[in-house]
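In these records, each integer encodes one residue's backbone shape. Here is one protein:

___
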Amino acid sequence: MIKPRLFLAAMLLFLAATGVHAQQTDNLQAAREAMARYEYSKAIELLDKALEAAAGDDTAIRDLSLQKARCQKKILRYDAAAETLASVMKPGMLDVEVAGELADCHVNSGKLEDALGLYGILSLQHPDNLYFSIQKASLLFKVNDFQGCAEEGMAICRRDSIPSMLSLVGASLLNMGQVDSSLAYYRKSLRLNPSNPNTVTSISNILLRKKDYDGIISLTKAFLELVPDNMGVAQILGVAYYLKEDQDNAYEVFKQLRKDGDDSYGTMYYSGLNALALNRFEVAQDCFESAWQTDSTDAKLAVNYAISLAKDGLIRRKDGVLIDNTKKAVNLFKKASELAEPDPGLMYKIHNGLGQLYYRNENISLALPEFEKAYKYNPDDLALLVSLGYCHEVRKEYKQALQYYEKYLKLGKEGTKNSNFAKQGAAHAKSELHMQ
């Protein structure tokens, strides 16, 4: 027979436990309703109350903490979520679900080494879990362990040919200097997913290193047959035509890109270079101007823009208005000079461009020092010797003129226009020196 006092105590404990459980259930249900409305902050408050009510119930605390951490992740509180998850991890035991969520928190908060450590343990304990292996491979790449990433990625691809993983292996091999192996993996990835523009771009970059412009053209044209509206790949096609010096085809590609509304820096810059190569100076100027509005710190752009202005003559007519390009060209050459120093290739182009501009304007005093600077940066341009000789000849400095003409005749090619000009100039300089 149960004593009345013991029975009463038992009933009180039962009712208290029932009340706590009911409170926990109510808070959990309210939290789920808040999550359904994407009210994650409210859900966290309710889950905290449910956790208080679940004190002593390890299973309930684990489940509630997981839900709380997921809500914290939804509002980008990754460190707080990591603390929540770490609080329910037990020493000597690896809870796969909790560890996976914690590793994801570390990834999102930039703690890649911590995440890599967890995924490494998880993939060792669960070698058949493809997700853990993929996460490990991705993290190995992010921490620049390209050898480890390639090995992990290859193991994954032996189990399942995943296009993105094949590309990741390709990227790792490329960073290790194994260009041909990298290309092979990228091509495998493209065969499985032929409409991925990123893979086409990666392959094109490798072919660009090899100067295989025909390979790039074939690749990008095949892709554009599947995805005709991809401007990024069309831009690569245009650049490949330009570098191959197939300027007419390049012009058509870039013209269509501009027509379709592509005003990106790359398209406008290469459109300008292509138009400049075809002597379509107004098109080149318009394209370079658009690119210049995007980036006015690129010395190569500045010098090519200046060349397009300088080559268009002193004055040109546009929309019935007379425009003098000279001053703008000079300012751009000077700007390029400030940006390019000490790049000898660009400095040569700048000073040679300025020299040609002043030369055409018959301002020999300004042209001469520019040609001298250009020759200093690029003594292989023998045509500069003729220009220098002529500048000195116009200034009646016949001794210096003769020296430049004779140097050209010694080094230059016989029978060319420059050779004939140098012969005539040398003869005139000798005659004048003799008269003196």
About this structure: Residues 10-20 have pLDDT under 50 and may be disordered.
